[in-house]
Amino acid sequence: MKEALYEKDLTAMKFTILESRRHDRMVREIAADLGIPHLLLRRYLMENLDMLLLENLPARYEQGKKFQEGLPEVERALSSHLYTRAVPLINERVMDAIVAATKERVAAGIPLSEAVSAGKAMVRQVILR
Amino acid sequence: MKRTVDVSIPVGPVHPCWKEPARVKCETRGEYVVSAEVELGYMKKGIERIMKGRPWQEVMFLAERVCGICSVIHNMVFIEALEHISGIEVPRRAALLRVIVNELDRMQSHILANFSYCYTIEHETLAMYLLDVREKVMDQLERITGARVTCAYIVPGGVRFDLRPEDAQALRLSLSAIEQEVTRYTDMFSGGPLIALRSKGIGILTKEAAREAYAVGPTARASGLGDIDRRLRHPTYQSLGFSPVVRTEGDNYARIMVRFQEIVQSIGLIRKCLDELPAGPIRGGGIPGAGEIAYSGEAPRGELTYFVKTDSAGRVLEISIQTPSIMNIEACCHYMLKGVSSMADVTSTFVSSDPCIACTER
After folding, report:
1. What is the rounded distance in angstroms from the CA atom of residue A85 to the CA atom of residue B43?
2. Under 8 Å between Cβ of A46 and A15
3. CB contact at 8 A, B300 and B70
4. Predicted local distance difference test score (pLDDT) of residue A66
5. First CA to last CA distance, chain A
6. Does B212 reach chain A within 8 Å, measured CB to CB?
7. How many helices (H) and strands (E) does chain A have?
8. Which CATH class is domain B6-361?
9. Terminal CA-to-CA distance of chain B, rounded, Å?
10. ipTM computed for the complex
11. What percent of chain B has pLDDT over 90?
12. Three state DSSP letters for B75-113
């Protein structure tokens, strides 16, 4: 045997975790919110998160959703806590920059929904890069 | 000249201090653990897949086979989920008997977890004392339900066996002996200077981190989160005036001490149930029907949730189980182990979160 047993490819195990009913529902919800295909999001999660974090994602997601209800409007609309601390899709520094850019747009008179859409497009770009 | 290098050190999958196989991959800088990652997949049962499409009468036996240590609560949560779907009432006597058996199960689980921790920090004397007292709890569990592990005691509408007066008397006597011994061992643990060296200030999980990772059970309660205890929302526990044990240190020591305190608390709850046990039936009847529910209960390790969907014949169409160890092991790896200053503390910190790999992988 050439490869150590414990260095095996975990892709299949990760896929099995994400296939479960609760995980699948969560992945589809996030994908719909960010406007990306759920299959791409699933692959991103498999590539970037370890198995245990994947197992725990639905619980973290629910907890993160509850937490962000108390956040300011722009942070809540962009799900800044949810996508950085609860479901770590992107880096906190990157999210802070996106939130700041969105706030700037709102201050410049652009409607909140439009500014948030632009913010979400930036989040999408980071994930699809 | 001494050189510090980054090394990836795998702990497990087979380790003498662990009850089940899991591989913790630690990225270290010298003795300092920079990050840790757990790899699972050594004992996947696929039990949720096996449950799908089967009648509830079969699934209730499968449910308690998810975990060999906390089998009673799996049985209880699944059955109570069915009862909520179908509006089945439980007589007061049966509800209190459920609490008695559930608390006995919690006691033996906590004692086993603390045994594992003491064994890991090489305090074998205390570890063996704890195993001895656990047998007394298991004997009572066997006396009431007829089995030590997979009891199948709880059924829709009630419980399977009544508590005879002589069993209640034996339970009271045994509880007194267990309380005396557990109090003595708690003092040994809390007063041991070497135990404190291996436990205090190690593997800290802050309140914020515990909330973020959705840590549950004694692991969260040792970090100051008391409101996550599902027993606070259970009508029978509410009627008994239950309030959770909470500590704020968030380290290995606090997690073990919370379990010791909860054992004594469970003894108090069982005594209260015995005092309040009314005469009457132990089965109210009722047949599970069609519906869908997400129902949670407090397992020894924390919140256990069953997502169940049944048809009119009571067949389980969809089922998903969220076990407490999923959240706690994740909190352990991504918060507690990060920053541990000695590789020797990796195993003890991991064990202090009471990981159950059988539950996690299902």
Report:
1. 30
2. yes
3. yes
4. 86
5. 36
6. yes
7. 7, 0
8. mainly alpha
9. 49
10. 0.71
11. 40
12. HHHHHHHHHHHHCCCCCHHHHHHHHHHHHHHHHHHHHHH
Beta bridge partners of B154: B159
Who among A20, A51, A63 is closest to B214 (CB)?
Answer: A63
- CB-nearest partner of B327 from A21, A51, A59: A59
- A52-70 burial by CB neighbour count: b if 16+ within 10 A, else e? bbbbbbbbbbebbeeebee
What tokens appear for A74 in the block? 């722009």
Quick one: CA dihedral A39, A19, B326, B157, positive or negative? Answer: positive
Q: Alpha-carbon distance B66 to B74, whole Å?
A: 8
Give A-chain residues touching B327 at CB under 8 angstroms.
Answer: 56, 59
Q: What is the pLDDT of residues B178-229, one digit of tens each?
A: 999 999 999 988 888 888 888 888 888 899 888 888 889 999 999 988 888 8
CB of B335 within 8 Å of any CB in chain A?
Answer: no
> CA-CA distances (angstroms) from residue A71 to A75, A77, A79, B105, B273?
6, 9, 9, 41, 44
**B4 pLDDT tier (thresholds 50, 70, 90):** low
Kindly report, residue by residue over B80-135, the tens digit of the pLDDT.
999 999 888 899 999 999 999 999 999 999 999 999 999 988 888 899 999 999 99
Q: Chain B: give the shortest CA distance to residue A75, in Å.
A: 17
| Amino acid symbol at B226 | G
The model's pTM? 0.84
CA distance A26 to chain B (A): 14
| B307 interfacial to chain A (CB closer than 8 Å) | yes
Q: β-strands B32-39, B154-155: how paired?
A: unpaired
Cα separation, A73 vs B292, whole angstroms:
34
DSSP lists the bridge partners of residue B29 as B6, B32
- For A62, the closest chain B residue by CA position comes to B214
The Cβ of residue A46 has, within 10 Å, a number of other Cβ atoms equal to: 18
Q: What is the pLDDT of residue B195?
A: 83
User: pLDDT (tens digit, 9 = 90+) per residue, A70-85?
Assistant: 888 888 888 888 888 8
Mutant choice from B309, B330, B337, B353 vs A, greatest count of A C-beta within 10 A: B330
Cα-based torsion angle of the residue sequence A7, A8, A12, A15 in order, rounded to the nearest 10 degrees: 0
Q: For chain B, which residues make up each domain, given as ranges? A: 6-361
Q: Are strands B32-39 and B23-29 parallel, antiparallel or unpaired?
A: antiparallel
